[in-house]
Amino acid sequence: MKKIFAVLSVLVALTMALTACGPAAPAAEECLIGISNSFVGSEWRAQMIDGMNLAADELGCTLIIESADTDVNGQIQQINNLINQGVKAIVINPGDVAGLKPTLEEAIADGIVVVAVDQEIDIPGGYNVVIDQKKWAMLSAEWLFGERLKGEGNVTLLEGFVGHPANEARMAGVAEVLSKYPGITVVLRDTGMWDPATAQQKTSDFLASGQQIDGMWTQDGMAEGMLLAIKAANLETWPQVAGEARASYLRLWKATLAEKPDFVTVGVINPPAVGNGGVRAAYLLLQGRKPDTAKLAGPFGNSMYVPIPDIVTNDNLDEWLAKIDGKADSYTLDAEVDQALIEGYFAP
């Protein structure tokens, strides 16, 4: 009998020790995460997927990746494909919120963890790992409309995909900044669809319109095309321009300064590492960890914000160029998102 009691005592002690350590990490078959990505036409998205793979390798999770240029119906098919393959969580960069909402709600109702990255979604039981897209756009808009133009002048706006969640959040931020400066007039507005070549053509059209243009604002992926169009136009006086934080733009910026030393622009970093953070959040949710609602943010109260890493300016341009030495022109400046950052949004 003494031996039996001794064995039981050891088992009880081990159970108590394991319980004290908190929820166990999900087993390999339980940490099966599906990735739904509806747009592959940019290096930003490629870096996002790379970051997701790195996080999964570190955490011992398996990813099933559905990644293609597709519309709402195509992304719904991506989600259904992942569910049919038995994923326990879905990390999604949503191309449309309203169109995907019923499918994602069904997934959550079936016990699947849903985490959106890059764009914020309003779905009960779902979470977001994102930067504050509205704030991100406001930083460059304030720089252009307030700091550079001093609240006066004619400007153009070149936005991304109209209706896309990130674009709409960004344009809401631009509108909020513009409301502070009644002396700023938007004379032309169009979409460059986050494509540098399209942005270059649209900017050329703006410049050929005959309108007085004092400033030009755009989003990441399009500023390089905008600057190339300005350079090609041989203007006597250049409009003030907002830039971007991509290797090719930074190098063009440096080359432009050699020709035009008074050239000034700015690039706010939009880190692809939010994808890495999305996988980390899904991993914790699969452990049964609960987010601390007091720490969640965003318009829907379900977002884990990744800090905006930095703003590239004329003053720190050389520092950033040194950091990306050897990177491809398509490389987007990024940030590190580690487990501690994401765990900070969860209850102990």
Task: Describe this structure as you would to a colleague.
The protein has 2 domains: 24-131 and 271-307 and 334-343, Response regulator (Rossmann fold, 3-Layer(aba) Sandwich), CATH 3.40.50.2300; 133-268, Response regulator (Rossmann fold), CATH 3.40.50. Helix content is 44%, strand content 16%. Strand 8 (215-218), helix 8 and strand 9 form a beta-alpha-beta unit. It has a 6-stranded parallel β-sheet with strand order 2-1-3-4-5-11, sandwiched between helices. Strands 7-6-8-9 form a 4-stranded parallel β-sheet, with helices on both faces. The protein has 348 residues and is α/β, with parallel strands linked by helices. The model is unreliable at 1-23 (pLDDT under 50).
> What is the C-level CATH assignment of the largest domain?
Alpha Beta
CATH topology of the largest domain: Rossmann fold
What's the average pLDDT? 92
Based on secondary structure, the structural category is: alpha/beta
User: Helix fraction?
Assistant: 40-55%
CATH architecture of the largest domain: 3-Layer(aba) Sandwich
Q: What is the end-to-end distance?
A: 40 Å
Number of strands: 12
| Sequence of secondary-structure elements | HEHEHEHEEHEHEHEHEHEHEEHH
Précis, in short:
With 348 residues, the chain is an alpha/beta fold.
Q: How do the helices and strands line up, and which of them pair or pack?
A:
Elements: H1 2-20, E1 32-37, H2 43-59, E2 62-67, H3 72-84, E3 89-93, H4 97-109, E4 113-117, E5 127-130, H5 133-148, E6 153-159, H6 165-178, E7 184-191, H7 196-207, E8 215-218, H8 223-232, E9 240-241, H9 247-259, E10 267-268, H10 274-286, E11 303-305, E12 311-312, H11 317-323, H12 339-343
Parallel strand pairs: 1-2, 1-3, 3-4, 4-5, 5-11, 6-7, 6-8, 8-9
Antiparallel strand pairs: 10-12
Helix pairs in contact: 2-10, 3-4, 5-6, 7-8, 9-11
